[in-house]
Amino acid sequence: MDAFVAAIPDRSMRLHTTHSYQFLGLEQGRGLWQASNLESDVIIGVIDTGIWPEHPSFHDYGFGPVPTKWKGACESGTNFSSLNCNRKLIGARYFFKGYEAEHGRVNEAANFKSPRATNGHGTHCASTAAGNLVQNASFYGLARGVAAGMRYTSRIAVYKVCWEGPAGCFDCDILAAINQAIKDGVDVVSISIGLAEGGAVQYFEDTTAQAAFAGIQRGIFFSLSAGNEGPRTVGNTAPWLMTVAASYTDRSFPTIVKLGNGQIFEGISLYSGKSLKELPILYGSTAGKKFAQYCVPGTLSPKLVKGKVVVCEQIGGFDTYQQAEYVKLVGGAGTIIFPDKGEDPTAYPSMFPAASVGDFARNAILSYLKSTKSPTASLTFKGTTYGKRAPMMAAFSSRGPNLVGPDLLKPDLTAPGVNILAAWPSITSPSEEEGDKRRVMFNLLSGTSMACPHVSGLAALLISRHKEWSPAAVKSAMMTTAYNLDNRGSPIKDVYHGGPATPFAIGSGHVDIQKASDPGLLYDIHPHEYLHYLCSLNYSPSQITLFDRNFTCPKKTTMQPGDLNYPSFAVPFKSDDVTITYRRTVTNVGNPPVATYKVLVEEPIGISVRVKPNILSFKTHGEKLRYKVSFTIIRRLVQSDYSSFGSLKWVSEKYAVRSPIVITYIE
Prior knowledge:
Layout: E1 12-15, H1 20-23, H2 35-38, E2 43-48, E3 89-94, H3 97-103, H4 121-130, E4 134-139, E5 142-147, E6 155-160, E7 169-170, H5 171-184, E8 188-191, E9 193-195, H6 207-217, E10 221-225, E11 242-247, E12 251-252, E13 254-259, E14 264-268, E15 276-283, H7 302-305, E16 309-313, H8 320-329, E17 334-338, E18 354-356, H9 359-371, E19 376-381, E20 385-386, E21 392-393, E22 413-416, E23 420-423, E24 442-445, H10 448-465, H11 471-480, E25 493-494, H12 503-506, H13 513-516, E26 521-522, H14 527-536, H15 541-545, E27 569-574, E28 579-588, E29 595-602, E30 607-612, E31 615-618, E32 624-633, E33 643-651, E34 656-666
Parallel strand pairs: 2-6, 2-8, 3-6, 8-10, 10-11, 11-22, 15-16, 16-17, 17-18, 21-25, 27-34
Antiparallel strand pairs: 1-7, 1-9, 4-5, 12-20, 13-14, 13-19, 15-19, 23-24, 26-28, 28-32, 29-31, 29-33, 30-32, 33-34
Helix pairs in contact: 4-10, 5-6
């Protein structure tokens, strides 16, 4: 066929989830939430599990006519018609051919074969990015407040690509959805989906990256989740994508665990009932049979457990909600759950007194259990609290290095992604378990899936303010103004290991949307520069064709991968490298336009950094100036310490434009 370019094996993909807008500094009637910045029409396309259109987050009160630029449709299907769209939810489509090619017909007992959602993930993400204002939102009284998307006046278009069942999202359905979203006229695309096993693939094998590049060429911004698999698993790493990690806000749902010996620990719980007085606690063999420590069906003894608190170890394939429900089923009074992710306990929507604690508490509790024949504990549920140390990087958030391109730092930045309250389908329980008969309007979820739509909505705010900016400019503004100190003035902590977060976890830092609206300088990238970047990776003509059928790499390329005008520096040294030099161009968008910037460098351990010139003087708005930065090894790090980190910052009287530096050693 004339239109045939290449055949790429289809892959199954996986989904990556009130107060966060306040944590990000957004305030009604001020700054980026001023009426003038919320009036213009920005359309956010959400590629996910569909939507529950009746939810008040998607009501269209106060919205004007649908933008004339919109070319999309509201497709009919099971329990969904064009009447389900409105002036807020202006488009809805669904894609299933890839899923059906692999698994046969969509199971309509578990799915609506339409844009309507049964899985709440897509509804949650859409409302996080652009949900309308909803008063008095909460999860059983927890996290109570006004729910609002980051750009709550944006229009929403949904593209359902994920289905209930095995491996429910497929590359070709996502590819088709992106292509359609581009044709429909969206301004921002939000995708909280990645490889089922985590990580990334080469760009010439990544159909999401390929389809997104066509959108970038048309000025569309793409925000994608980094993944939830921890170190060395960051996904969605193409340079034209914004790759978003997940971190905590200062809101928490603490539970006080007090042991019989007087020790007190703080855990987390979404249980909103009465606290538990001091009761006996059981663990392992004292609670039942072999493997009773995992609290899986058939392991606990009702006779031993009745009326007591049971300690459970988290185990793969069996979440804490299921563990708590099993303890409840056999007559237990409550449970303390040890997570599998260090000091990063997860809050699950339990109907039973259950608290998750971190490794420090786990070790202390285990020691206490061994020290006495009659251990006891009480659980006090504190509800919603604010003001804890934040942000902190979530342990689950996927980290670098970027295994596809070591010359490119990923993730790009972090945003709120832990215990995020957002809209939920009224047909689906908060735990998504069959035995859970509860129904809620809002649910609390965690994941880079939840961080991604925050950035999608924030990008829509910047596009409203700066309509002339390219997707790369929007991305640069957010990255170079991101911050790296928490609300205590200390380096942002990584919960995974307890120390300061490195750029492999946090990227450029935590998004600061107010500063991003006035960044001073931009690292802009024209789409053709991305193609030259692919040429520098020695892509073949057939591989380049996957991104642009009309582009041919020059016979002699002078660009190295690190010369892409990216807002961060990833410098991979091979065994014979001594000095590596990169080139960058910055565009002046500051006010006033006449400004002088001096460079400040925090040198990575073992590296000398030289910048030429070290002063940039701008005279006009839009002026572009170039500089070179050379990285020289003065002490090669030992094998066990293969990376070092620093930063390069251009500073004027008004602005500080920061780029992280990551040094790696490749043998």
